[in-house]
Each structure stands twice: as structure tokens, then as C-alpha cells.
Amino acid sequence: MSAAGVERVAVVGTGVIGVSWAAHFLARGLDVVATDPSPGAEERLRKEVAALWPTLTPVDGATPERLAFTADPAEAAADADFVQENGPEREDVKHELFAVLDGAARPDVVLASSSSGLLPSAIARGCPAHPERVVIGHPFNPPHVIPLVEVVPGERTAEEAVTQALAFYTAVGKKPIRLRQELPGHVANRLQAALWQEAYSLVERGVASVADIDTAISQGPGLRWAVLGPFANQHLSGGPGGIAHVLEHLGPPTEKWWRDLGQVTLTPELVATLVAGVDAELAGTDPAELAARRDAVLHSLLDAKARTELP
Questions:
Q1: Where is the 3-hydroxyacyl-CoA dehydrogenase NAD binding domain (predicted)?
Q2: I need a labelling partner for 162 at 20 to 30 A (CA). Which of 28, 43, 122, 175 fits?
Q3: Is this model's pTM higher than 0.85 or not?
């Protein structure tokens, strides 16, 4: 099955994100050739894809048997129609890796990086031949569950590469957004960082516990955010006047709250407090089991959203 002209995807790097991408692409009926230099990488990859497979909804013809592996990234990229890179979050490593991918992949093949924060222009400096086909294709963890992909072009990225990436991610069931500027952390991680800043500050100031803050989000605004985004939710909270009414009447006090938000530094003491708070909150809970339960709820939510007409 072809997805926007893509039949074979190279998954470069098979850590947590790479495994999840590989499983997702396979479930969408594509051929996947994965590569990773780590000892035992192929065995771990096949084992983890097999463990994820029962949680997926494969299309007709999809099978884990369409997964190939090579330790050579050039070999993986040579016959690929799309490259999804998931290597370490270090610019020097990216440059070395992308130089190999740039030399091996066909000139028309998009080289997308899953980088959560590096700029595409910086990564593209590792591609001397065709920097115009480098984009960020940042998923949210786990990619086989969460639909979002942030597509970020760099200074030298061609519009055609952006169009191809958006079309491909859409064809494999993702919800891509396109950034008009490249920024460290892109969009979603920057929004998360803003929330974490205040959450860490509230804990540091003794306003609320780690568990209470998790409850405040997961049992409060997080429920609405999982259905509609912050602007649409704010619009609905304004009644007939919508977001214009909210901004007129609640804008001034909100600006005062902004001025009062905490500025924090991750000191050893604060880190220890946060870690102890999470340990206390999740005491006796197996993280893998909790992640599985979380993902099951996410699948149910996504199924419900698919059956409901939403923006």
C-alpha cells in the first residue's frame, strides 16, 4: 500500500521513538527498513514491535514481516521513499548521520528528523548535497498512538519537501501541523515547557504537591484540552461573546497572573523534591503497566473523537 507515493520507509535509530514509528508505519501497510548501530538492536526492535502489534489496528496487508533491518544507515536509505531519523539529540551526531543519509538517499526523498528541539537549519548543515529536503518531522511520544507531527522547514528547505512531508504524514493517519518559523522546541514542547515552569515553581514554593498538580491538570483543563485546543476551549468559555468576551473581561487579570508566574532553576534540591513527589504519587505502580493503561484510554479517546465532528 502506498502512502502519498511512499511504499518503503527507512527508520534510522530504533530507540523508544524509532520502535514506535516502525510499528506505526508497518501497521499502515508500508515496508520498513530499520537501522541502528547498537548491539542487539535488531532483536530488541523485533521483540518490541511484536509487543506493540496487538495494540495497533493494521490495515489490510500490514504485517510485521515487512520489517527489514540493517546496521548500515546508507543501505537503509538507499531504497527508501521517505526517511524518518530518530538518532541522539546532539547536533554533531545529526551532522554525521545526515551526511550519510544525504549521500545514500535519492535526491527527491525527504529526510525528516524526529528531533524534539533542534533546528532544521542546523541539522541540514550535515547535508552538503541536498539540504533542501531536510525537515523536522517531530512526533509526540508514543508516535504509534499520538497523532500530532510537527513539520518544521529550515532556511534552505524546499517547499516541495514540506508538501511531501505533510502529505505523507496525513496519509499514514497523523495530524501534522506546519510551523512558519523554526524555534528551539518547536510548538508543543514550548507549550509544555511553559506549563512545567509554573508547575515546578508551585511545588518549589510549597503551594501544591506533585500529586495535586497532576490531579489539577488531568482532572481539570487537561480533559478539555484533549478534545479541543486552548483557543477553541477559551472561545467556548465566553458564552455568546466567545473569545472576544473572555479577552475583554479576563484579559487584564490574566496579565496580572502572567507577571506573577514563577521563574525556576532546576537546582539539585528542586529535582530531588520533584522526583520524591512522583515516587510518592506512583508508589507501587509499575510504569510499564501505567503506560499501557494510559495508552488504552488514549485509544478510546481517539476512537471517540474520530466518531465525533470536531475542529
A1: 9-180
A2: 28
A3: yes
